[in-house]
Amino acid sequence: MPEQLLPTPSHTVGPFYGYALPFPEGGQVAPKGHPDQITLHGHVLDGEGDPIPDALLEFWQAAPDGSLKGAPGSMRRDPVTGGYLGRNGTDFTGFGRVATDADGHYALHTLPPGNAGPPYISVCVFARGLLHHLYTRAYLADGPQGADPLLDSLPPERRATLVAQPGERRTYRFDIRLQGEGETVFLEFQ
Amino acid sequence: MTLTQSDIDTEVNDLQNAYDKAVAGGAPVQHHPPRDYAPYRSSVLRHPKQPLVAVNGGDPETVELSGPVFGPTDITEIDNDLTVQHQGEPLGERITVSGRLLDRDGRPVRGQLIELWQANASGRYAHLRDQHPAPLDPNFTGVGRTLTDDQGRYFFRTIKPGAYPWRNHTNAWRPAHIHFSLFGSAFTQRLVTQMYFPNDPLFPYDPILRSVTDESARGRLVAQYNHDLSQPEFSLGYEWDIVLDGPSATWIEEGR
Questions:
Q1: A45 CB contacts (<8 Å, ≥6 apart)?
Q2: CA of A11: which chain B residue's CA is closest?
Q3: How far apart are CA A72 and CA B72, in angstroms?
Q4: Which residues of chain A have pLDDT under 70?
């Protein structure tokens, strides 16, 4: 086995990423008007239960057909003005990026993930005060069920933090608690 | 009660000594900062107290072993030159920053998106919430993007950012730095970090840099000045290679 390079350390995203990383319609992963669109939404909360207004969430998921190839064009640009064109309406990029609003709320409009096993959307959390990002997963409570090594390994109360509950108009509620009571299960990949 | 630099120094040094002692006693080296690092006060309520749950990357159907892709439609041709994005030239010391984006096996990460953002030469961000009384520069936004080439190389032209104050404690100053956002071939390799400039006298005082308690790891956040990359009568050259952590599905593809 060849010697491995040592990794570059993580650092916090800080408070001022807002004019650099978010892009228009970063949360509109589903083609606009698509009849199968679902909305994953919720609040990001700190250890005192207060909303975090400067968190940045990224989402990655399988396409409805199960493909994990993704596609370019999430932040498609206009070469004339330098502005943003939005996604092209045909390719499913599988990637979304949403900053929380002043209430610590986010919303992702996407299509149901078609990964093997119970469907989930992978979530990566960045925030001022968070020195190293955190991963979690939002499993759709009413999706196809079955064995899942992660869910099956957790006691019921912790497992519940990974399950997005269906609401009206194809919405799913998924709150992210960084600390304290009901703390979300966060993941490390080995 | 006012929190002084000396108070923060004491906390930072206690954590540094505890880490050094642990490693000398055989504990593993920590390449990343702990999420629970009290000298950086904003971390106190924003880190989980439960241990992370391990997901075994041996299952190729794990969604996070793949990741987002980007292409030429996601950038414009001048995105990597922060000095030409306005009508006039920004004030400050013109620099270039370049290097390679690699995985831990040393393989280049090709065609992938790198984003950066930074303060201007006087240490102010083009962000409404930054009210540091230093001048904004109408000719500098401080945002750049590029795609890595076939060798994993990237290149930016910009100006050297200034140091700036923040309110972690009294007289807190951040060393000059550029924020970087990086994608690998897998979502597990995602990285957001900051690049520093060599020999900055503010290094010992900054609880964010010092949160990386391993001295060698801290050194990997500091770019090198490379005279060969400087351009005569135009710009100074800095070199910074970035190595992404985390498993990916690439080995599965290459093992076919």
A1: A51, A52, A104, A175, A176, A177, A178
A2: B193
A3: 8
A4: 1-2
Quick check: B192 and A52 CB within 8 A? no
- What SS3 state is found at A64? coil
Which residues of B form the catalytic set?
Answer: 125, 164, 174, 177, 179
The CATH number of the domain holding residue A47 is 2.60.130.10
In this complex, the residue of A18, A19, A190 whose CB is nearest that of residue B54 is: A190
Do residue B49 and residue A180 have CB atoms under 8 angstroms apart? Answer: yes
> Looking at the domain assignment, is residue A60 inside a domain?
yes
- List C-alpha distances in Å: A146 to A20, A123, B53, B243: 40, 21, 20, 37
Do the Cβ atoms of B208 and A4 come within 8 Å? no
Q: Is the dihedral of CA A144, A147, A149, A155 positive or negative?
A: positive
Mind spelling out the 3-state secondary structure of chain B?
Answer: CCCCHHHHHHHHHHHHHHHHHHHHCCCCCCCCCCCCCCCCHHHCCCCCCCCCEEECCCCCCCHHHCCCCCCHHHCCCCCCECCCCCCCCCCCCEEEEEEEEEECCCCECCCCEEEEEECCCCCCCCCCCCCCCCCCCCCCCCEEEEECCCCCEEEEEEECCCCEEECCCCCEEECCEEEEEECCCCHHHCEEEEEECCCCCCHHHCHHHHCCCCHHHHHCCECEECHHHCECCCEEEEECCEEECCCCCHHHHHCC
Q: How many domains does chain A divide into?
A: 1
Query: Considering CB atoms only, which of A11, A52, A189 is closest to B208?
Result: A11
Domains and CATH numbers, chain B: 5-46+71-245 (2.60.130.10)
| Tens place of pLDDT per residue across chain B (256 aa) | 799 999 999 999 999 999 999 999 999 999 999 999 999 999 999 999 999 999 976 788 899 999 999 999 999 999 999 999 999 999 999 999 999 999 999 999 999 999 999 999 999 999 888 888 899 999 999 999 999 999 999 999 999 999 999 999 999 999 999 999 999 999 999 999 999 999 999 999 999 999 999 999 999 999 999 999 999 999 999 999 999 999 876 544 443 3
What residue numbers bound the domain in which A159 lies?
28-177
